[in-house]
Amino acid sequence: MRAMVLEKSGNPLELSDIPVPDPGAGQVVLKVHACGVCRTDLHVVDGELADPKLPLIPGHEIVGTVVSVGEGVTKFKRGDRVGIPWLGYTCGICTYCKLGMENLCDNARFTGYNIDGGYAEYTVAAERYCFSIPEGFSDLEAAPLLCAGLIGYRSFIMTGEARRIGMYGFGAAAHILVQVATFQGRSIYAFTKPGDKNGQKFALGLGAVWAGDSTSTPPEELDAAIIFAPVGSLVPAALRAVRKGGVVVCAGIHMSDIPSFPYHILWGERTLRSVANLTRTDGEEFLKIAPQVPVKNEIQIYPLEKANEALHDLKDGRVQGAAVLKP
Ligand SMILES: [Zn+2]
Ligand SMILES: [Zn+2]
Description:
- The structure is a single chain.
- This protein is of the alpha/beta class.
- The chain has helices spanning 39-45, 95-98, 139-142, 148-157, 172-183, 197-205, 234-241, 280-292, 307-315; strands at 2-5, 14-17, 27-37, 62-69, 81-84, 87-89, 109-110, 122-126, 131-132, 164-168, 187-192, 210-213, 222-227, 242-250, 271-274, 299-303, 322-326.
- 23% of the residues lie in helices and 27% in strands.
- The strands form 4 sheets. Strands 3, 4, 5, 8, 9, 16 and 17 form a 7-stranded mixed β-sheet that branches. A 6-stranded parallel β-sheet has the order 12-11-10-13-14-15, with helices on both faces.
- Strand 1 and strand 2 (14-17) form a beta hairpin.
- Bound molecules: zinc ion (ZN) (2 copies).
């Protein structure tokens, strides 16, 4: 099969011809129809996340159909349409797993990082981490739901009952979550790179009540903010925009250093927290809500062999909505 392979961190992906994987016990092999390109892939390829499996096939927003199943597989059968997310393995016995916080499992393994992912024509995954894909989404439209959607949704849950929510960085995750939030009657304030008028127009078109530069002050105090962009200086900016008792959620897996800031912008019982990974429960919940909204994903499609181009476009802010590879 054709696959885009990372041989060494910091190098571009190489188009390779490798054998189709066989399913082990509890595993399914999918023919990949779509794989979303996530900012985390960029962090993996650029070497900002330490110790990836090498060589590695990136990609953790995978939609495909099951072509073969391993011993003991019961949840899926051949021909089923299945999604594979970032969380690829948890141990089930560590403190976190036992407390229902499998997203923090000490021994977790992640798709497209510790396990080969979906930048390929076929991939293999443990069925207990896979999801059924709701009807009403094409394969290409469904792919971004699996990380931008799921982990974005987990970040969104962490804002509690907030009515006015700021979103810093209006990429794949924010463009999905603004739709969910608006559906629930909440108001979204979208912050983009300074001067990104297209991004601001895009956010308003999807239901944001206000859009502006990340350096500007929103017209009202916010109840909460989610930072999707990997930019540490947004943390003090978001704390300044949030009311007493409000929460600022850092949604990314990697962020540049946070500059020091005066204590008074945190004081007043503001909370600053991060969100890491996903639990399977987050996934089940989000994939029920997405078709009710219904979420409409704006996607830019790239052929598999253009994965490097997709990553560059993402890095340079040329992707509106979500980038998706089509093998
Ligand atoms: Zn565990
Ligand atoms: Zn991701």
